[in-house]
Amino acid sequence: MKPITEKEFNQLVDIIKSKYGVNLLNKKALVIGRLQNYTEQNGFKSFSEYLAYVLTDKTGRALTTLINKVTTNHTFFMREAEHFSFFQNKVLPYLEATESAKKDLRIWSAGCSTGEEPYTLAMIVDEHFGLEKNLWDTIILATDISTKVLETACNGVYPNELIEVLPQKWKNNYFVRVNEENSKIISRLKDDVIFKKFNLMQDIFPFRRKFHVIFCRNVMIYFDLTTRTELVNKFYEFMEQGGYLFIGHSESLNREETRFKYILPAVYRKE
């Protein structure tokens, strides 16, 4: 197979950016490394032929395979732990008080990757409400564009070394050993998280009700300023008054272009 040309690479960049908002312009080596063998093994004579196949595949499976291969999904339990502390100590008590009549909390983990973030949120919520949790609707929505990482998240099986950072009581209460290498999230906690494939770049968000909390961390680093601003404005529209937005510490919002109020580094609020 012929090496990828600059024109072909730029075409790929345009496809991924237009459909998913992800900018791969400076990721040429990554793209080649992840797609070269795949395209050769599947009999494509050129990268142009492969891209034509992706664009004409009406099932959408080719595009799904492409995004699975070129996106990087790196996460782990307790990543940016101060966010979870703030959620546990400030956000949950506030929401428990303000939503005590309806007992309905709506939390969205957008760009959930392999599930560590939403499961951590579920553990915090479960511990916070304790025996009263059954009185509340606390189902967490967790979404990603990659079906590969969503499959891992739904399985809920993680290497034991990755859960070592969690408090011992969480490991005891929310995990069962599968074998010497792996542990699995208990069914009761898995039922508290709904995993769905979702593209943050789609024009219309299908949610009927607004969220109290949105975690979208280390996702927008791949978006340009215009795309970031448009997405944050959507988050604002789909958030309840007084709700909180958490982004990654390597990300920031332009305070002149957002209606969110800055609270802490990478924590914003709709007021």
**Cα-atom Rg, whole angstroms?**
20 Å
**What is the 3D shape?**
globular
Calculate the terminal CA-CA distance, rounded to whole Å: 56 Å
Strand order in space, largest sheet: 6-2-1-7-8-10-9
The overall strand count is 10
Into which percentage range does the β-strand content fall? 15-25%
- Could you give a short account of the major beta sheet? 7 strands, mixed
CATH fold-level label of the largest domain:
Rossmann fold
Q: Provide the CATH superfamily of the largest domain.
A: Vaccinia Virus protein VP39
Name of the level-1 CATH class of the largest domain: Alpha Beta
Output the helix-strand order: HHHHHEHEHEHEEHEEHEEE
What report would you give on this structure?
The structure is a single chain. By secondary structure, the chain is an alpha/beta fold. The chain folds into 2 domains: 6-70, Chemotaxis Receptor Methyltransferase Cher, domain 1; 81-155 and 191-269, Rossmann fold. Helix content is 42%, strand content 17%. It has 10 helices and 10 strands. The chain has helices spanning 6-20, 28-41, 47-56, 61-70, 81-98, 116-129, 147-155, 168-174, 187-190, 225-237; strands spanning 107-110, 140-144, 157-159, 175-177, 182-185, 193-197, 211-216, 239-247, 261-264, 267-269. The protein has a 7-stranded mixed sheet. A 3-stranded antiparallel sheet has the order 3-5-4. Helix 5 (81-98) crosses helix 6. The longest helix has 18 residues, at 81-98. The protein is globular and about 60 Å long.
Helix and strand arrangement:
Elements (H helix, E strand, L loop, with lengths): L5 H15 L7 H14 L5 H10 L4 H10 L10 H18 L8 E4 L5 H14 L10 E5 L2 H9 L1 E3 L8 H7 E3 L4 E4 L1 H4 L2 E5 L13 E6 L8 H13 L1 E9 L13 E4 L2 E3 L2
Helix pairs in contact: 5-6
